[in-house]
Write a structure and sequence with these properties.
With 245 residues, this protein is mainly β. It has 4 helices and 13 strands.
């Protein structure tokens, strides 16, 4: 769902938190995904005039995430999308480019569905990628191998929900790859200063052995809406996370 993303990120990104794209949005650790149709649909409470922002600690950017029949609000410390992006009403998918935030998940969201929506289900998963670090600069192999976490159902209460947070162990999960495979992937994808990065890749004895590392590069929300006639639609919110160094 996104174009090839191979980033050579300059040294200022080393300040980003190290919490980790995507062969298939529906792949996950155990090849499990929500079955079609309602599983545990939550009946939405009576329509209220919900606030347009959520409570936050002060300096966050308040986001208005708009679909044709559902609006969500939440807050992040920094996002890199143009302001005009959040003024748009999106059909199926919203992609949020997170900035250098200290907290990539665990936010509270308010739901403002259209009157025609009867039930809503929300699922979350995440994806990790491998990065090669050189103190400040780093090379992110976001178009190579990934670990895709299981889709997990999020509980909705009073037309709001909170996203899951991930442990260090979860953030560092990655498929088993050899040092030779890491080196070959680096040679295949790097296009700038290739000798520098291949020499660093040779030092990686595994995906989490410095100068290699693994972190979350994408968090996905899948929203299943059922209207009063029983029709279901799916919406996605994708959070692109800058990788650490």
């Amino acid at each position: 769902m996104s174009a090839t993303n191979i980033f050579l990120v300059l040294g200022f990104l080393c300040s980003c938190s190290r919490p980790g794209q995507n062969e298939s949005l529906f792949d996950n650790g155990k090849d499990e995904k929500p079955k079609s149709g309602l599983i545990s649909g939550v009946k939405l409470e009576e329509q209220v005039n919900a606030p347009e922002t959520v409570e936050d600690s002060g300096d966050s950017v308040q986001l208005l995430l708009q679909f044709e029949n559902l609006t969500l609000t939440t807050g992040f410390e920094e996002v890199w999308n143009d302001d005009s992006y959040f003024a748009e009403v999106h059909k199926d998918t919203i992609v949020v480019q997170l900035g250098l935030v200290g907290k990539i998940s665990g936010q509270t969201y308010l739901l403002m569905p259209a009157a025609s929506i009867k039930t809503i289900q929300i699922y979350q998963n995440y994806e990790t990628s491998l990065t090669i670090m050189d103190e400040g600069p780093h090379l992110d192999l976001t178009d190579w191998a990934h670990y895709n976490g299981e889709w997990k159902n999020l509980e909705i209460e009073s037309n709001s929900f909170k996203t899951l947070e991930y442990s260090t162990a979860e953030q560092e999960r990655f498929p088993e790859v050899t040092s030779g495979e890491i080196l070959e992937a680096t040679k295949r994808y790097v296009s700038v200063d290739s000798k520098r990065w291949t020499e660093l890749a040779k030092q990686c004895t595994g995906p989490n052995a410095y100068p290699c590392g693994v972190s979350i590069n994408r968090i996905n929300l899948k929203i299943v809406l059922t209207d009063n006639k029983g029709n279901t639609t799916e919406k996605y919110i994708i959070f692109e996370v800058p990788m650490g160094c």
